[in-house]
Amino acid sequence: MEETQLKKFSIVMEGGGMRGLYTAGVIDVLMENEIYADSAVGVSAGAVFGCNYKSRQIGRVLRYNKKYCKDKRLASIRNWITTGDVYSREFGYYELPWKLDIFDRQTYAENPMKFTVVCTDLDTGKPVYHECPNGDVEDIEWMRASASIPVASRPVKLEGKRLLDGGVSDPIPVKWMLSRGYEKNVVVLTRDVKYRKKANPKMQLFLKAVLHKYPAFLKDLEERHIHYNETLEELASLEKEGSVHIIRPSSPIQAAMIERDESNLERIYQTGRADMKKDLEKLKAYLDS
Q: Which is the catalytic residue, given 28, 38, 121, 165?
């Protein structure tokens, strides 16, 4: 496979909303230690935060989230009522990266690391894996699609598809990354080792009422806890085999969908940094073995 001839390792970044500040802490420590993957795949927050790993912008994720977490232009119920998106497309994905806290598109584009995001096709319920090579407006739209929460966001229309949160169909895309031929794979989770996803019957009834026109997507949502927990079991086996190296929170972390507490964002980020620093020598040994 031409794509995998010169590979070192890949990194898979789970979503989880503002728990993604954990991932930001992890990748910042990796960057500080000049540890860069050859290929990265991000889901939801793993996409919109993880892209800063390719643009090599240490500290950017924490900085802009703390600065604007109380700004209702970024996220609010009012946004949702007026536009259909809790997180504003115009402010969060245009004004913020291009004017207020500049996303380094040039470094992103020049970095040979592959960066792929996962979305879910609303009509088929299937995951869509899309490489974002340039860090331009179109790529940012793909990242936004990956992070567009069902009901809290409008579908994002790209390449003839209606797309929403990639975490619905493939929350931890380790199988996809393994299919690319990498022998060393780092997986960054945003849940602690004891976590298992549970069914939420009341939420499922609500989602069924709202999304009944999209049966395949709705089935993904209804079975999401099953597939997620199966993936965790598969990861445990892969870790024993040495195919993956997992970095996950050392203790449970919590964040609201609209997190206004700067101190909590800082706490989540610092947990990611601390866990990565503690794991650093083990990771290096894994990558060098």
A: 165
